[in-house]
Amino acid sequence: MTAIERFYSVIPAGGIGSRLWPLSRADAPKFLHDLTGSGQTLLRDTWDRLAPISGTDRIMVVTGRAHRAAVEGQLPELADHNVVLESEPRDSSAAIGLAAAILALREPDVIIGSFAADHVIKGTVLFRHAVQEAVALADAGYIATIGIRPTEPAIGFGYIHTGGPLKVAGAPSASIVDSFVEKPDLATAERYVAGGKHLWNAGMFIARADRLLEELARNKPELHAGLVELAAAWDDPATRGPAVDRIWPNLEKIAIDYSVAEPAAAAGRLAVVPAQFDWDDVGDFASIAKIHSGGRKRDLAILGADARVLADSSSGIVVSQGGRTIALIGVEDIVVVDTPDALLVTTSANAQKVKSVVDALRLSGRGDVL
Fold first, then answer.
1. Does the pTM exceed 0.85?
2. What's the rounded Cα separation, in Å, for the pair 278 and 316?
3. Cα separations (Å) of 60 from 2, 180, 184, 226, 351?
């Protein structure tokens, strides 16, 4: 399978996946775990999915300094010049924008695609087809995204309101995007799904690097200026460090959805390809349970190499890292995550609320368990 011409994959590998605490931690974030039973981490799965599309020498990973060794251990094929280290998290605009600025200097006509390190995608051929359509849109001057057809009225995702079809060669299923919509309440999400005009925002963005930077400059000129200055110093080891120390901490912390995608949609410059492949952002323990049970709510998913679980008339998910025997009797949709220093017990319906526990621990100064 040949790589797509001019295409470069970017993998932002950041965040701790706070809704997956206490399994996911600052020093062992979500993308460094095997959450699907594939036998390898989500990051490695992402690499294996992208390598045939762009080539192993055309994948850039943006990650934190603390995760460099783990990332390189997972991805021995990753070229040193394609490792971009963040001194501290500054959200996706800075991560993806810096990658775009570096690659635009190296290769002025490059088309980049940004794909999260911690999502699950099934149907690699269909994924490649969607990326190819998005690349055609990018070549025509659009910022492109790949939207996911909703399977339920989820309130944990942003939505893409699609407009009319686009006539762009190589992108037969593409539509213009009318607007990006924030995470809705349940009644609104039900209306979106019933109407058939909304897709989930999966955070996949494909664009010519220069076009993405133009959009960023239009909407966030100070952030753009800082990233361009950083990129100019990046490929010289003598200038990179001082530039990072001086510029990076002062960059605005903002998601690329707000700095690029939303304003591009409002101006008619954002296009979407509806995905035909299966996608899951593995955003909480309920998602993991669904992946392992095939959507059968009566099943109990068990994760952990040496898990010792006794269950009777129970369903949900157990993640065992603590070595203890866990017994469940007559509990439905339970979530139990047992680690050596923290225990989480909740239900699938409340799995999204785990982030509030992490926030509370942070405010209380309990960084030792984060």
1. yes
2. 22
3. 18, 27, 33, 20, 32
